[in-house]
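[INFO] parsing input record for YtoQ family protein
[DEBUG] input buffer:
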Amino acid sequence: MTLKIYLSGEIHTDWREQITDGAAGLDVTFDSPVTDHDASDDCGVAIMGAEDKKFWHDHKGAKLNAIRTRRGIEGADLVVVRFGEKYKQWNAAFDAGYAAALGKSVIVLSPPEHQHALKEVHAAALAVTETPQQVVEILRYVLKGQLPG
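[DEBUG] output buffer:
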């Protein structure tokens, strides 16, 4: 069984690499949004032209990024959504809700201090984790039936 996994959310740490490295040898493929922050923010105006107002600048970028995000989430068997410590990832919450609405399996990766703020997102997830290693262990269990140890 190959699992197609979409890694959504925070782009400022190496959590994606920790999961992909930890999942080496498992029958998985990974996809994710554009993780170059500047490219993600400026793609719309870089391709379709400058905007005088920041709202329209962001609007163009969000729509272009949505093409990739929707394809990734819709094609995934499992969506991992990471909420980092430094920034409020409203886009990650949207991705989690979109994935849940599509009936996708969702794993949330978040620090314990965000529990209250993310309670509805956590309630929609099939697992709530605090470390990338826990995500890897879930993948190993789902694919091989092996517990950590």
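[INFO] Strands lie at 3-9, 28-31, 78-82, 105-109, 127-129.
[INFO] shutting down worker
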